[in-house]
Amino acid sequence: MAELPGVTITGASGRMGQMLIRQVQASDRLRLVGAVERPDHAWVGQDVGAAMGGGDIGIRVTDDAKAAISAADAVIDFTAPAATLDFAAHAAAAGAVHVIGTTGMTDAEIAQLAPFAEKTVIVRAGNMSLGVNLLTQLTRRVAAALDADFDIEIIEAHHNRKVDAPSGTALMLGEAAAAGRGVSLAEVSDRGRDGMTGARRRGDIGFTAIRGGDIVGEHDVMFAADGERIILRHVASDRSVFARGALKAALWGIGRAPGAYDMLDVLGLGDAG
């Protein structure tokens, strides 16, 4: 029987890292071959199963990302922008699929991924869930159907430890709305209102970020006109939806031609809308 494809998880001690490790361990299609943490992290050198509060599973946490990624068919990465760029170089050198769920990357940082996508498969998305990616397509279609008499507002809520705002998902939804209207999000984005801001500018796409408690992720796209509102909504109550999507992306990417992809490609929705 052929050996299952191997996956390395970066940011192993994080909430998403631990969720991903559990999902891979439970999978009958993938196997865990590596767990990476930053140098000097307390988990380095420990068996990752024991570090997570369970029994040993035979995988020790390492700070040698190059070696851990070289041993894998795919790496799943929900970390930070600078770390993601380092991991991208290792994944490209090893020919490993790089699934990126890291948020908060600037346009310049995203552009730095392009040379690596010439050497291996990169699947990057602001959100890995099926529901959110369907919401993205709906947002684009509704925005295309309605003119600027409908103001667009994107309201997102996350836990109080999230460090970036707007969320990667909110920006993904904003891009979809802008694409539906045939405009550039950079030109119509309204991300901050405080004080005497004046009236809302026609055609802008507004963002509101809520941070509190243990909210996993909630996103509303509101189309508001005089006398009526249309609200598209997605609520994630369990972080495992993101992990399952990331595993699906890893499996999809193995054996595929190098390139930059997203979850719409993984789900066969790339040409939709």
UniProtKB/TrEMBL annotation:
Pathway(s) it belongs to: Amino-acid biosynthesis; L-lysine biosynthesis via DAP pathway; (S)-tetrahydrodipicolinate from L-aspartate: step 4/4
One GO BP: lysine biosynthetic process via diaminopimelate
Positions that bind NAD(+): G11, A12, S13, G14, R15, M16, E37, G101, T102, T103, A125, G126, N127, M128
Alphabetical list of CDD domains matching this protein: DHDPR_N
Claim: NAD is one of the keywords in the record: yes
Pfam families documented for this protein: DapB_C, DapB_N
EC number: 1.17.1.8
Chain ranges of the Dihydrodipicolinate reductase N-terminal domain: 7-128
Domain Dihydrodipicolinate reductase C-terminal residue range list: 131-267
Major localization class: cytoplasm
Binding site for NADP(+): R38
Catalytic site positions: H158, K162
Compartment annotation: Cytoplasm
Binding site for (S)-2,3,4,5-tetrahydrodipicolinate: H159, G168, T169
Catalysis: reaction(s): (S)-2,3,4,5-tetrahydrodipicolinate + NAD(+) + H2O = (2S,4S)-4-hydroxy-2,3,4,5-tetrahydrodipicolinate + NADH + H(+); (S)-2,3,4,5-tetrahydrodipicolinate + NADP(+) + H2O = (2S,4S)-4-hydroxy-2,3,4,5-tetrahydrodipicolinate + NADPH + H(+)
Purpose: Catalyzes the conversion of 4-hydroxy-tetrahydrodipicolinate (HTPA) to tetrahydrodipicolinate.
NCBIfam families in alphabetical order: dapB (TIGR00036)
Stored PANTHER family: 4-HYDROXY-TETRAHYDRODIPICOLINATE REDUCTASE 1, CHLOROPLASTIC-RELATED, DIHYDRODIPICOLINATE REDUCTASE
Protein name, UniProt field: 4-hydroxy-tetrahydrodipicolinate reductase
Organism per entry: Sulfitobacter alexandrii
Primary gene name: dapB
